[in-house]
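Hi all, posting the design record for the shared folder.

TITLE: backbone redesign
STEP: 1 of 1
STRUCTURE INPUT:
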């Protein structure tokens, strides 16, 4: 496929120390210029996959291709990694006592100092850290250090940028700004971004394509909206939503008949309305700011629903509800 920049063909990497860990039989095509988010629970193999893609680790079997050329592992390269693929690791790898400018510009050759300076400022402006140029990295916040680390990675014009848990050290506000910057990098610089995250929100709001990993295998992949609304696996539904999980018998109590063993109902799929045929008792109300989560009970079946009308419902009240959608597994 012409717009595939990275391709993994039947890639397996098993750690000798723990033979059940690692990744197994991975087939994956990464689209050029897209933001791909790899999501999965802790230990599912996300970081292993990133190391294999960057060439920092070699697969036991199978191959990783960059533009149809094999990405060679550390055994066959003096400097590990592929020059067109750059990784921003969780520890940022900054020279923390050096100035921001030197951290970034230091990666360019001294053959043309004017061009070096110009390029460094271009990248710093793009990531909105040019005002920090003369500060030492150690004096920056986590979000600012993250931007410096990204600037270091993109200053040499890589075609692929790998980000390992880029939001782990930043608060929600900075996280939203960083998400926007990552999208801009893909759109305006044409960099293909592959991002690893255990927070499903990163994938839902950022990814063009999302890959769901479980125990080292790819369960499914697709555009976030589709994966969210029509998950093929309960694991995906639980990763992406705080969903209610019921047995077939419990679902029957709610008037849902299905031949599937397990039924998932997202909280927003429960419509609260007067006079609805299902009458729930509110067991608890959890304030969430702009909305509330209601813990509902009907004949022992417990469900979390959402109310966007904070204060309307209180513990002990009876409330009518209708299940608008469910997914069976
Ligand atoms: N160098 C190693 N030696 C042995 N086992 C390893 C090594 N690196 C990772 N593993 C194991 O491989 C599995 C996958 O690890 P990996 O770090 O890729 O998962 P992850 O999804 O990135 O996890 P997390 O979200 O916790 O960072 C885990 O069970 C881990 O313990």
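Okay, here is what came back for every position:
SEQUENCE:
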């Amino acid at each position: 496929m012409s717009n595939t920049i990275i391709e993994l063909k039947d890639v397996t990497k098993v750690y000798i120390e723990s033979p059940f860990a690692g990744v197994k039989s991975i087939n994956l095509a990464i689209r050029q210029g897209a933001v791909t988010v790899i999501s999965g629970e802790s230990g599912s193999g996300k970081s292993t996959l990133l190391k294999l893609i960057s060439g920092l680790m070699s697969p036991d079997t199978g191959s990783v291709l960059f533009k149809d050329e094999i990405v060679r592992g550390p055994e066959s390269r003096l400097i590990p990694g592929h020059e067109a693929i750059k990784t921003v690791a969780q520890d940022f790898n900054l020279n923390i006592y050096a100035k921001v400018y030197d951290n970034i510009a230091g990666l360019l050759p001294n053959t043309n100092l004017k061009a070096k300076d110009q390029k460094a400022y271009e990248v710093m402006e793009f990531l909105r850290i040019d005002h920090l140029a003369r500060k030492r990295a150690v004096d920056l916040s986590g979000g600012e250090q993250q931007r410096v680390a990204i600037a270091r990675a993109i200053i040499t014009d890589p075609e692929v940028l790998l980000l390992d848990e880029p939001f782990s050290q930043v608060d929600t506000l900075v996280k939203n700004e960083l998400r926007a910057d990552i999208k801009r990098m893909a759109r305006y610089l044409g960099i293909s971004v592959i991002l690893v995250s255990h927070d499903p929100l990163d994938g839902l709001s950022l990814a063009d394509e999302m890959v769901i990993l479980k125990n080292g295998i790819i369960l499914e992949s697709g555009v976030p909206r589709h994966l969210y609304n029509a998950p093929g696996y309960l694991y995906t539904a639980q990763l992406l939503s705080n969903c209610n999980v019921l047995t077939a018998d419990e679902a029957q109590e709610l008037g849902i008949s299905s031949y599937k063993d397990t039924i998932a109902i997202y909280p927003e799929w429960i419509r609260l309305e007067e006079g609805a045929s299902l009458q729930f008792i509110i067991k608890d109300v959890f304030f969430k700011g702009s909305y509330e989560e209601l813990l509902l009970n009907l004949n022992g079946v417990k469900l979390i629903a959402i109310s966007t009308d904070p204060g309307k419902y209180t513990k002990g009240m009876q409330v009518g509800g209708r299940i608008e959608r469910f997914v069976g597994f």
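COMMENT: The mean pLDDT is 94.
Let me know if anyone wants the other runs.
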